[in-house]
Amino acid sequence: MTIRRSELFGIRTDPSRGRLAVTTQLPATIDEVISRMEQIDRELDPHDGVACFNRVYLKVTKLVKQHVTEGTFKDGAFLERMDVIFAGHYLQNVEAAKAGRQVEGSWQPLFDVRGNRVIWPIQFALAGMNAHINHDLALAVVETCQERGTAPENPPVHEDFEKVNDLLASVEAEIRAEFELQLVKVATAPAEQLKHAVSAFSMSTAREVAWFNATQLWNARNNPMKYQIVLTGMVGSVNATSRVILVPVIPPPAA
Length: 255
What we know:
This protein is mostly helical. It has helices at residues 5-9, 30-43, 49-70, 76-98, 108-112, 121-148, 157-183, 188-198, 203-219, 224-245; strands spanning 13-14, 19-20. α3 (49-70) crosses α6 (121-148), α3 crosses α7 and α9 packs antiparallel against α10 (224-245). The termini are far apart.
């Protein structure tokens, strides 16, 4: 018996697409993705946990667009399409939450505590990256390869995937540097607890895990049961890591 994704995650899906049912059309270009993220940024309270992640993701997406335009990637068309599909996974969860529907299990920890003002912006941002990279990115690689008639092992898919790492690393370093400056304003013991929570996520490790998961999903794509087993493991791991990252310790200092 084939297990549907909706049964695994407890979410409503669109049977024709196997994804969360959405009431608005998902973006089809990077420019449309950026426009939608800018809209989200305007709509949400800046302290909202999703807004904290959205600001970071918007910055990354603008960097990707810039490098696609500059010809950094060997297959810019593939990379751009993957970026759009990748963003769609995040945006469909935003849409689901906005409509009062349940989000996917990988995103649940962040959406559950998005209004908690004891949690720091960097915790929200890293939990979002954890969900998006360790779960959604693997799916985006598989979906883009299927759509464009290629495979993860075919050049230059992995090479271009790796080039995105440098863009992500630069953004991660920026938000961690800002966090370190704010951290000196809090007491030593809570600061150490907070650093421990934040250190639960590594961007470089996440990208490596995402690629491994993508290859696992790709190899299982013709075996529905095996594919769902891989997905279930991904969701469980992402969910557990996000809950560690999002442990409330001490309120961030006032801006």
